[in-house]
Amino acid sequence: MSTSSKNSMATADYEMVIGLEVHCQLKTQTKAFCACRTSFGAVPNENTCPVCLGLPGALPVLNQHAVELATTASLALNCIVHSESIFARKNYFYPDLPKGYQISQFDKPLATEGHLNIGLIENGQPVVIRITRVHMEEDAGKSVHDRFASSSAIDLNRSGTPLVEIVSEPDIRSSSQAGAYVRTLKQILEYVDVSDANMEEGSLRVDVNISARPRGTTAFGTRTEIKNLNSITGVERSVEIEFARQCSVLTAGGTIVQQTMLWDGHKEQIRPARSKEASHDYRYFPDPDLPPLVLSEQFISDKRRALPELPDARRARFSSQYEIPAADIDVLTATVQMADRFETIAATSSDAKRAANWVLGPLQASANASGIPLHEHPVSAKRLGDLIRLEVEGKVSNTAARQIFTFMESSNDDANVIAEREGLLKISDDSALVVWIDEVIAEFPAEAARFLGGEQKLQGVLVGHVMRKSKGSADPKKLNQLLAARVKLA
Amino acid sequence: MNRAEVEALIIVDAATTASRVRSREQSSLLALAAAKSQMESANLGRNGLNAILYSDADGALRAAGELGAQFTYSKTKSNFALAGVPVMVKDNIATLSMPTTCGSNILAGYVSPFEATAVKKLRASGALLLAKTNMDEFGMGSSTENSAVGPTFNPIDNTRVPGGSSGGSAVAVATGTVRIALGSETGGSVRQPASFCGIVGVKPTYGRVSRFGLVAFGSSLDHIGVFGKSVDDAALGLQVISGRDANDSTSAAVDVPDFRGHREVKSSAPLVGIVVGWPREYFPESLDSNIRALCERTRDALRSLGAEIREVSLPHTDLAVPVYYIVAPAEASSNLARFDGVRYGIRAESDSLRELYENSRSQGFGAEVTRRILLGTYVLSAGYYDAYYKRAQSVRQLISQDFARVFASGVHVLLTPTTPSTAFKLGAKSDPYEMYLSDIFTVTANLAGIPGMSLPIGRVDRLPVGGQLLASHFDEETMFRVAYALEHALGASAHQ
User: What is the pLDDT of residues B144-191, one digit of tens each?
Assistant: First the structure.
């Protein structure tokens, strides 16, 4: 029996239980407790000062903007934001942790008791994952082991960058739920504009707590923690592999050791971290350098009122407001920028369905081809909307509109200017159409004869010839009328 | 400058010196020259009283020169409260011009790239920073015997300690070298050496003076304090360094009143309307009878100045030392984690990261610091936190409430002995716990965050005795009012 089928037999008897801890870098200009910049990609140790270097005598001062963003994130995740929270010190030694402790929140976090609808329907019910807590903390620096031959280097640019840690309840039961949770969370954090939530750059990092238990039981098994996950695929694959490993250990009568596992995304392998990393006593205690964080009811309600429309609500509104298929709505609401752009185009063009087709069709294709984000495409929402309106109002054909779009990509001219200049406005003027019809009849005498002889199906062929001759500007409706009239005459 | 000239200059208080310099009646270099001369006569250096770790005579001279030029060409002089006044600063307060080593090997050679807010304020007021003073390593001690460079000696009897941990600053002021020096306190490290050396030592309200640049020991207990040769020197020094600082989240946005408003004692009963509390827990049966007698003499002096004396009770006082020796080491164990040999200070030879930490810290820290780190690590450990740290914080609340209740009842200041004994012999307290008990009357103010000060009230066998005044939060003004009147009334008897 192969390993994989043995595993699948084992896994069938067990249920996966997962809780996720997501660290998310807040989009502030400056660090959590000092005025250093947070920009990504600076020269090592450029963005540092006595505070984030942990020099003797330096003291932290909380960044108000970080508090605002953390509050917004908490509210977007349906949490209760507490009027008082406490910063604590998490003590451990590591070279990239210059103070020997990380300022975090422990027994009185910023927010608790949230929940997240992860957009899956299972057994007829939406899957909702409870969120235990959202707390603020500072990031550590980075140890660099591959830069110098015989020594490690430390870059403290990241030291003191503000983070929120979002901790879920162990409510997740499958790799696809885990993936959907991260995807939904990332989308919400982007929607409320508190974070770049970029997993590759490390502004969104996921730790997984995973255990296995016999199906039908309710007690939790011993869990392991998987760290270093920097992609959604990594989350999904690593939990599958770790779950299979736990199941085979349990099936063989073994016990799971509580430990930290490291994920190697390239090799798709999981291995235990050195055991010492798992056995910390962090000796948390309230940070005496920082008074309790007190938020007024007014502040919290202001932040709540300022929340933008969240993805769920936006999807629901799109589905009731516009006649667009559900799959298209998901794409159109994927990011705020996409959704905003679509809505401007829809409003300008006054035809949402056609606007959706344009966004998901030519606009998306063009953005993909030129490798720029859709919301930065040179044809602005307003310009594209105007173009689509020409089509909606029957002034240009779809074919002509696509040609106009191509011109618009390389110039700032408006759609109607291009249409006129390039002769792409629909020609419904009888005299012009009659000339083209006569020419086509002359050029394709055989088809023309059969058509005029009563073969209705050839009308399309002749229309096609005229359209080509007119470069798409002929009004097909009018053209059909004129051709039909010719048959009657004949 | 001859000896008589030096002696004529060093008896002039700081306010007078500054005023003469501002009015260009006296050169901005003169007081500094006297201080430098006295520093040598009093033998404050490594081979003498060992009060000074680093000095920067050139820097001070340069500052004095610049200051003089400023007064020649500028008309805005009123801000220079310490114009031309030489000062010294404890070695755990960050300075650009000299190393900041906290009396520890682990910071050997460390020069801070930034300056403490208190030091900036001193400089901005025209003070001339002359030296950094010896201390118990990281402030952990009550005798200045725990310095990596050896003990400081008491100038009155050099077989005795000057107190600590700010012993070097106390000696600098006691010898008349400077009129004002900064110290720091976590449990009495300014008031206790002030008492042992016969000078004035003030610990302000927690939050009154920025801690930015003060190397942390126990952050919730740490204060920068001021030594003065007289009450007015201390009040003036504190005036200059007080105020809200955006760099210290625990500094208070509270207006700084004029601490020196009552410096001129005009009537024979200047304390009418003032209620002085006499807390019975600070006068136990076991208290040295000579110290008790001096406190009683002080009490009577206050009464004859018009104050009402009222016996009060602070029932949780005996819990203060145990609470202190949980909270302070706990915070210290975390505050001192940054000294790991990785970025600055000494780095020991090692083959692995773990060894780097272990060797650097073992070699860098002295015995008392190591003891407190271990103690603090223990009380914060999983399974012990609730029993020790959390419980200690609850008891700390009770101690604060004791004070709050007494002050709410109409008492303005409390009078207590500063220390249970006079300066003890070097090496006399080899048992750490016995040493810890020398803070028994001072730690309460650090735990509660209230202001306190020690001023000389007499001597026993030639050795100075300090009386302690405690006041309610941010009421240094009343505390100084009582101190000015008392200093005036006691006159020379404060030093006899």
Answer: 999 999 999 999 999 999 999 999 999 999 999 999 999 999 999 999
Residue A415 CA to residue A413 CA, distance in Å, equals 7
Cross-strand partners of A249: none
Which residues does A24 contact at the CB level (< 8 Å), separation at least 6? A73, A163, A164, A165, A166, A189, A194, A195, A197, A203, A204, A205
Interface confidence, given as ipTM, is 0.94
Tell me whether residues A98 and B343 touch, CB distance under 8 A. yes
Kindly determine whether residue B334 and residue A50, on different chains, have CB atoms separated by under 8 Å: no
B250 CA: distance to closest CA in chain A (Å): 6
* Cross-chain residue pair B113–A58, CB shorter than 8 Å: no
- B189 annotated active-site: yes
Q: What is the pTM for the complete model shown?
A: 0.89
Cβ contact, residue pair B334, A285, below 8 Å: yes
* B71 HSE (CA, 13 A, CB side): 26
- Name every chain A residue with its beta carbon within 8 A of the beta carbon of B102: 56
- What are A231-264's pLDDT values in tens digits? 999 999 999 999 999 999 998 888 888 888 888 8
Task: State the average pLDDT for chain B.
Answer: 95
**Which residues are within 8 A (CB) of A456 and not within 5 positions of it... i.e. 6 or more apart?**
none
Q: Which residues contact A379 (CB under 8 A, 6 or more apart)?
A: A363, A366, A387, A405, A408, A409
CB-hemisphere CA count at 13 Å for A386? 15
Q: A289 in contact with B at a CB cutoff of 8 Å? A: yes
Q: What is the pLDDT of residue B363?
A: 94
Q: Is B90 marked active-site? A: yes
* CA dist A137 → A24, A26, A92, A182 (Å): 10, 10, 15, 20
Examine residue B220 and say whether the peptide bond preceding it is cis (omega within 30 degrees of 0).
no
Min Cα separation B341/chain A (Å): 9
Contact B104, B137 (CB under 8 A): yes
B165 tagged catalytic: yes
